Amino acid sequence: MPPATVPSTSATHSAGRSSRIAPHSHIRGLGLRPDGIADTEAAGFVGQNAAREACGIVVELVKSRKFSGRALLLTGAPGTGKTALALAIAQELGVRVPFCPMVGSEVYSTEVKKTEVLAEVFRRAIGLRIKETKEVYEGELTELTPTETENPLSGYGKTVSHVVIGLKTVKGQKQLRLDPGIYEAILKEKITVGDVIYVEANTGAVKRVGRSDAYASSYDLESETYVPLPKGDVHKRKEVIQDVTLGDLDAANARPQGGQDIMSVMGSLVKTGRTEVTEKLRREVEKVVKGYVEQGVAEVVPGVVFIDEVHMLDVECFTYLNALLESPMAPTVVFATNRGNALVRGTTDVISPHGIPVDLLDRCLIVKTEPYDKAQVAKVVQVRAGVEGLRLGPGVLDKLASEGERASLRYALQLLTPASILASVSGRREIALEDIGEMNELFLDAKTSATKIGSVAGLQ
Length: 460
Ligand SMILES: Nc1ncnc2c1ncn2[C@@H]1O[C@H](COP(=O)(O)OP(=O)(O)OP(=O)(O)O)[C@@H](O)[C@H]1O
Ligand SMILES: [Mg+2]
Prior knowledge:
It is an enzyme of class 3 (hydrolase). Residues 1-26 are annotated as: Disordered. Keywords: Activator, ATP-binding, Chromatin regulator, DNA damage, DNA repair, Helicase, Hydrolase, Nucleotide-binding, Nucleus, Transcription, Transcription regulation. GO terms for molecular function: ATP binding; ATP hydrolysis activity; DNA helicase activity. The protein has 460 residues and is an alpha/beta fold. It folds into 3 domains: 1-26 and 128-277, CATH 2.40.50.360; 41-125 and 303-368, P-loop containing nucleotide triphosphate hydrolases (Rossmann fold, 3-Layer(aba) Sandwich); 374-456, Helicase, Ruva Protein, domain 3. It is built from 15 helices and 20 strands. It has helices at 10-14, 49-63, 82-93, 114-124, 180-188, 246-254, 260-265, 279-295, 315-326, 358-361, 374-388, 396-406, 409-425, 433-442, 446-456, and strands spanning 7-8, 41-42, 45-46, 71-75, 99-103, 126-150, 158-168, 173-178, 195-200, 206-212, 226-227, 235-245, 298-302, 304-308, 332-337, 341-343, 351-353, 364-368, 391-392, 430-431. The strands form 5 sheets. Strands 1, 6, 7, 8, 9, 10, 11, 12 and 13 form a 9-stranded mixed beta sheet that branches. It is globular, with a radius of gyration of 27 Å. Residues 1-21 have low confidence and may be disordered. The site of magnesium ion has 4 residues, from helix 3.
């Protein structure tokens, strides 16, 4: 029987940040057929077929690892779905491929250097799948008894001196006496009797595999994963697969107190006393990783960095990006911008398409999003209303569609929620035409707002 493998998804996402998904929650992917052709309406997307197909090709290239070190640039007017496309790419890639979104302006932090912010994102976008054979104690937890002793030094009563656990497999049973540190880990993972767990023999790291089959309940809806009672001995060698990123490894090596299980992977690298991720540390981590790849222990999974509003970066960042793209372990980069010709930030006179210097533009595949017509706006509004659980009265969809065509798709979408509040205030469950009318009096779209101010100030 092949050794059981335990997929771990926690590491890749441990460093993940909250994403800006809410306005895009209706997008579930690119909506492409198996032959790569876009259906006009699929996966929450409406239209934008050419751009979706182009993104589909990029997804295929990323999956087959042929696009690292290259860049895709999404351009188009505001509200034409560039951010939505990038998020769809992430969904198509799946959770195993790291996807690291950021906004151009995030580099302007007062605490961290601009280039450092970029470097870190790029490191988090390189995944590593590590296969390790570890010596473990695995089984269903049958007993968990912490032993307390009086602590003579502190006045605070008792401390846990050790913990006794019982582990059961199909073949046998074993009782282990473990360090109190492991008891803490057990509490942290919320492990209880009846869970299948394993304890790594060398590091003492504890992992919960799932709940033992024997405890499976008859409810259909449950988040619990049930696993069979492990076969073989309690004490054995087991193949473990872990997904981590270079960013995780950098951080774990810079601050060696945390990341118990990551540390076991990189054990050879730990040097205490480091508190900062330096370029030197990164090179060292890379060297170790290369060694693992050569031995066939680890596999590199290049992911994607998404930089939205890329025109917000300055010339220093752009130069650094060129260098990052050329490094041997580079992820795929997706940029998005709604600017046409613009001044490159940080220069006084360099005007360039999209505010991106030409040498970086030269490395980009450019995909343009098209403006929407009224029918397409109507469809997106309808999709969004469905997701937000809003009901539209007669004529409302048509009204919103013409608003969207006049101003922008985003404006039409933004009217939806406040209009639904107006409707519920008036005790209706459906958004009516008058709610939209009132919204238009209360709120302005960008063009109207600018015209009004312009005419008042005599700027027109
Ligand atoms: N083709 C589409 N199908 C469905 N929803 C769409 C489509 N295009 C855009 N949307 C939705 O419209 C809204 C605006 O789109 P998005 O934020 O992607 O625009 P953008 O091109 O990134 O604009 P900006 O340049 O202002 O950043 C989002 O809620 C997005 O999910
Ligand atoms: Mg956007």
